[in-house]
Amino acid sequence: MSDASGRIRFIEGNFSNYSSFDKAYTKIFAINVLYFWDDLLPVFSKIFALLKPGGSLILFMSSPERLEAKPITSDSVFNKHTIRKVESDLLVAGFLQVAHETVVKGAFETYYVRAEK
Length: 117
Fold this sequence. Notes:
With 117 residues, the protein is of the alpha+beta class. The protein has one domain: 3-Layer(aba) Sandwich (Rossmann fold), CATH 3.40.50.150. It has helices spanning 40-50, 64-69, 83-92, and strands at 25-31, 51-62, 97-105, 108-116. Helix 1 (40-50) packs across helix 3. The longest helix has 11 residues, at 40-50. The protein is globular, with a radius of gyration of 15 Å.
């Protein structure tokens, strides 16, 4: 969110419980956060509603295999969503175009996902 001067304003809290959004956005970025969303569809639907027509959601995520290989993310706290599940739920949430770029890091994949309203 940005203030009247156009500066970015960060809000800490549970996105699913936050309802005080006062405008629509052209871009929303979600970097390494979808691991903490148990159910993607309600979150993606909320993001879709917050975007202006033609707006974009940009996600960064690691593959489940990469998360399992890292000691800090190998526990049950991290949801290990597949790229297919993410893309499918984005389309169900209403996004018109969903595409991803795969980047291989070591033996594992990470993804940059772009969804257009």
